[in-house]
Design a protein that fits this description.
The chain is mainly alpha-helical. Helices cover 82% and strands 0% of the residues. The chain has helices at 7-11, 16-34, 39-62, 67-110, 116-119, 125-137, 141-150, 154-162, 168-203, 208-244, 249-260, 265-280, 283-308, 317-331, 335-360.
Length: 361
């Protein structure tokens, strides 16, 4: 039988249930405001945890089910094979970018003549040379171009590059929070999932089981299919750039890895670098790089990608692009992981609703 309302409940302006809902809403909003800075490392930890969960389960069996030991070993492996290589690569790339910035300052001060290799570019050499003269050739031209595009002067941008290490402390704190969150995701993941199943069953009765099982599969497929392949292509093509004698091979390898996240981005990257080599006079290196990139891309698309990219969803181009750009703009480097995953979840939920609507019809 339902509980009887007391006289105080009948005369109250706001009922106890309504008051409890509003209080819960206020607490959630206050929590979101005060703990907003922890959202990015928490999301990154969840993405890494979901993507590596099958490997973690094997590790857990190896240590006889000791979750604390397994979580500790997993964190050490993540630091050794993910965090340390990415950090060293980023530090080296920053040094190369500083060299680019110093050249840009000198070119802006004195002007830079048209490079010989630029005039040798097939079909577009004359057009590129005229634009180089217009935007780079005379003193101050490069600064005017930067001012027109970004609204900042080139000196400000270069000084920003030089002091980029000043924000390293914030990055280290974010990384530390992510590792701490990832440790508890590994150690208490099963209990967290069980509690979410209880609450989710109340929120989405009849649908929660399908949606909740869709989330880890989608995240695993997205992270594995996009990120792992992109990192691999960046490393392989970066080594090819170094062998071919391309300036700043580490930075160009990182750019190629980012471009590989977008369909068609990796072929565009190594094709442009090959054109640069041919125009500079390194005909054999340019043709060899183009052939190597084509073979590598064929092998990845025909053999590795179909095995790695599984799960219930494959993102089309537009959601992938929006996820990358929106993720980087909102969360920085970690947005490369979080943005596509969120878009994948949105697309997965949309397809789930669409399938139910079609079945009902």
């Amino acid at each position: 039988m339902p509980a009887r309302k007391t006289s105080s409940d009948r005369h109250a302006l706001v009922g106890p249930a309504s008051a409890a809902r509003w209080l819960l809403l206020v607490i959630l909003l206050a929590s979101a405001y005060f703990f907003y800075g922890f959202l990015v490392p928490l999301l990154a930890a969840m993405v890494i945890g979901f993507a590596s969960w099958p490997l973690y389960r094997r590790l857990l069996k190896t240590v006889d089910g000791n979750r604390t030991v397994a979580a500790t070993i997993a964190i050490l492996l993540v630091v050794s094979f993910i965090i340390v290589p990415i950090s060293l690569t980023a530090i080296y790339a920053v040094g190369e970018v500083k060299t680019w910035g110093a050249w840009a300052l000198k070119a802006n001060e004195l002007g830079a003549p048209v490079p010989d290799w630029l005039m040798q570019v097939p079909l577009a050499g004359a057009w590129l040379s005229s634009h180089w003269d217009q935007y780079v050739g005379h003193p101050g031209a490069l600064g005017e171009l930067v001012q027109l595009i970004s609204g900042a002067n080139i000196g400000t941008i270069y000084r920003g590059i030089l002091v980029i290490g000043a924000s390293a402390f914030h990055g280290i704190l974010t990384l530390l929070f992510m590792l701490i969150s990832l440790f508890f995701v590994y150690r208490d993941g099963d209990r967290i999932v069980a509690q979410l199943d209880v609450v989710g069953g109340r929120i989405l009765p009849g649908r929660w089981e399908r949606v909740s099982r869709l989330v880890p599969m989608t995240i695993s497929a997205t992270v594995t299919g996009m990120t792992v392949i992109a990192v691999g292509e960046g490393i392989v093509l970066g080594l090819a750039y170094w062998i071919a004698g391309v300036p700043s091979p580490v930075t160009l390898g990182i750019i190629t890895g980012f471009m590989a996240l977008i369909p068609g981005g990796a072929p565009l990257s190594f094709t442009l670098v090959s054109i640069y080599l041919v125009a500079r006079g390194s005909f054999v290196a340019g043709i060899g790089l183009l052939l190597w990139g084509t073979v590598e891309l064929f092998v990845v698309d025909k053999t590795l990608r179909p095995r790695l990219v599984g799960g219930p969803i494959k993102l089309p181009f537009l959601p992938t692009f929006f996820g990358l750009v929106g993720g980087v703009k909102t969360m920085g480097l970690l947005g490369l992981f979080v943005g596509p995953v969120l878009m994948a979840l949105l697309v997965a939920i949309w397809r789930e609703w669409l399938l139910e609507a079609q079945q009902d019809t």
